[in-house]
Predict the structure.
Amino acid sequence: MEGRTAIPSRRWPAWANATALLLAGWIALAILTLQVRPGATVVAVAFPPWWSTQQVFQAAGSAQASIVRATALPTLLVVRPDDHDGLTRLHDAGAWFVMDAQAVSACFGGLPDGG
């Protein structure tokens, strides 16, 4: 029995649980807040962050979306999709996600209400 050493166990830090819960809450709140409202005619569209401004504008144009406004972030545009199929075309053109323009206006100010 001599020479036995206890193997230290690796434990999850106590603060990590609280941090994980806080992050999950923020993500859930962001998802619920940024959802596009039914009937919204103006939406904010996020494209990949490594795209140039020219690529973003070309992608929005290829989806037949009218550009309403550019934001402080070059890969985030406020657009008016052409018709009921416009959101699908935006995703096909490379958009990562589509958000409610009013929710984005809280961060960037002065955007149209979309309704």
